[in-house]
Design goal:
Strand 15 and strand 16 form a beta hairpin. By secondary structure, the chain is α+β, with helices and mostly antiparallel strands. The protein has two domains: 318 residues, 2-Layer Sandwich (BirA Bifunctional Protein, domain 2); 93 residues, 3-Layer(aba) Sandwich (Rossmann fold), CATH 3.40.50. The relative contact order is 0.12. It is built from 16 helices and 16 strands.
Length: 437
Amino acid sequence: MPKPQNVKGMRDQMSQAMLLRQHIITTLMRIFERHGFEPLTTPVVEYAETLEGKLGDEEKLIYRFEDHGGRKLALRYDQTVPLARVVAQYSGQIALPWRRYAIGPSYRGERPARGRYREFWQADVDIVGSASPLADAEIIAVLTESLKALGFPEFVTLLNHRQIIGGIARVSGLDEEAASGVYRAIDKLDKIGAEGVRAELIASSVSEAAADRILELVLLDGSPHDVLAELEQQLGDDERAVAALNNLRAISAALADIGVPTTRYRVTPRLARGLSYYTGAVFETITSHWPQGSLLGGGRYDDLIGLFSGQAIPTVGLAFGIDRLHDVMEELNIGPRLANPARAFVTIFSPDQTAASLQLARELRDAGINVITALASDQGLGKQFKEADRKGVPFALVLGPDELARGEAVVKDLATGEQRTVPRSEVAAALANTIEA
């Protein structure tokens, strides 16, 4: 028999990891729905042609295969392209603007690394059918609220517009074709550094003077107001860049009205975002606790749905990488310390007390308490206490003949060894109070 092992880049999620992942997902869902986003699920398998031609250089990472009928299929690369397909396919059934969220696995055939896996879960939120900068601002507000709710101690969202880099390239003397290559070079800035980007630009026939000016402008830093003012001074002759700057100003003003402080975001001209379907504002969130790159990101893609529907439908969204959030939270020791979802372990004192113990467990579950029951009625209480403690259950309950006769139960705190006798009718309330505490 071959050695049992999972596929490289695809992880088994054991109980401890799953409890934290479920906490992340339920927290995100609560915030998404608080903002009026509706759930959507799409198949993990799409026709290959649905994904092809939408992802730029990333298309090489698509998992493709043929089924028994010879149909060319692909595993879902992200939640965005399937959303575009759904909007086109069900156009008569969707009231725009549509706030949608989707949570599930996606697949990419890339080299596995820390925080980067071949199978990974994403939680996406998108607003379909609105070109308003208020939509971009709301997506960034959802991002900010979500990370705060999850307990991230520090993070900042980098904000840019696709036409800013294009404008920088154009005012530096590049034509439209050469300007498109600047996106690819700037997108590598975090990996190869400023000198590496400069060398790559020069290698692509950009003059040294133009390369230096491009780097000078994309590396601008400061408050959103100061960076936008400096960019306007430098790009004021480029009509598309000016429109982009006005768009970022409108987003910034809306963020202030929503309550997102300027300490939580900054305008960053170097932000490119690699996916080719972005058309407007783009953003990524970073934290010093994740030096490998961005924590999550998104942006506006007004043309993608039109590839399916035949008409442009403005859309903006973002994707939370559940695996990356999980890894960082685990490393920072933030989030609930969940060992087992059960709060109580109901022991069986002896075979004669089995029915009473099972009845107590049912009563507690009816009251909303998660309970594990012993499965061996011939085991001593000591072994049952050890089993409960090993599973991380905080309390063990005992119903012996004396407790049954008096209508009581013993509640044992397995962490401290302290135990107390509680009237049978008050056991659920006593355990509930420990949960609230």
